[in-house]
Amino acid sequence: MSRIRHMPRALLVGLAVTTVVLAVALMSLVWTPHAVTGVDIAARLQPPSTTYLLGTDHFGRDLLSMLMVGARTSMAVAILAVGLGMLVGVPLGLSAAAMHGGWLDDLVMRGNDLVFAFPVLVIAILITAVFGPSAVNAILAIGIFNIPVFARVTRGAALAIWTQDYIRAARVCGKGRARISMEHVLPNISSLLIVQGTIQFGLGILVEAGLSYVGLGAQPPLPSWGRMLADSQTMISFAPQLAIFPGLAIVITVLALNLAGDGLRDFLDPRIRRAR
């Protein structure tokens, strides 16, 4: 309890909101107020009411149910994409730091520069041009973009650890570079990677919404917050709730994850804790 009391307020707020969104996403696996694929033209464009708490869209589908399933879609894409980026980027960054100045370091860094030269939207267009638009291809596009992010963060943090005296002592004891990276370097940079992962998680949700908005993400009938925004743009003058609710969902979720990331940075950094 004392540890929780010393947590930054931004971290507590961010974690609380994120937990609620995750709970709603998980709830949509087993229950939604109405069927998200159920079309009821007679109930199209209904305002919020006791039957439809947030109203209906132009097909008569319940907005609340679509938002719940859209949360599941956005969360799943962001989690898998960030996981892919960490799974590939962290080992690359550790290897590059261990071989600092070697050919592997140069290869990883130049590869990172090559990926950074293409925005995530361009990567998504390249992937969907070959395999077609889908949520899986959105995961690949966002994940590929996250690989150099985690590789650079890991390499930069690991290089600072490699200059420490206990690393020299481990090398004198006969430990190899791979073992030192796993036993000494990775545990000491894990907090930084957690913070970076939280930030990239929020960016992943934002990018997924953008890709779905332009038709490169989740495809109908699977609801997505970005897709809901795209469908609402021609009806915003007489049915603004179609854009307001998914837009608020994106803003609140991304803001909560950014608050959680900033709070984690303050909570896990001993220098900031001492200053406070």
Notable characteristics:
single chain; 276 residues; mainly alpha; MetI-like fold; 72% helix; elongated
Describe this structure in words.
The protein has helices spanning 2-5, 9-27, 63-98, 103-116, 120-131, 135-162, 165-172, 177-213, 225-232, 241-268, 270-275. It is mainly alpha-helical. It has one domain (24-29, 47-275): MetI-like (MetI-like fold, Orthogonal Bundle). It is elongated and about 75 Å long.
The number of distinct helices, counting runs of at least 4 residues, comes to 11
Largest sheet: none
User: Beta-strand level of the residues, as a percent range?
Assistant: under 5%
Q: Radius of gyration over alpha carbons?
A: 22 Å
CATH superfamily: MetI-like
The percent range for helix content is: over 70%
Low-confidence stretches: none
Overall number of domains: 1
**Head-to-tail CA distance between termini:** 19 Å
Top-tier CATH class: Mainly Alpha
Specify the oligomeric state: single chain
Q: Kindly identify the CATH topology.
A: MetI-like fold
The chain-level structural class is mainly alpha
How would you state the average pLDDT, rounded?
87
How many β-strand stretches? 0
Could you say which overall geometry the principal axes of the C-alpha atoms support? elongated
**What's the architecture in CATH terms?**
Orthogonal Bundle
Element-by-element helix/strand order? HHHHHHHHHHH
Brief overview:
With 276 residues, the chain is mainly α. It has a single domain (24-29, 47-275), classed as MetI-like fold. The chain is built from eleven helices and no strands.
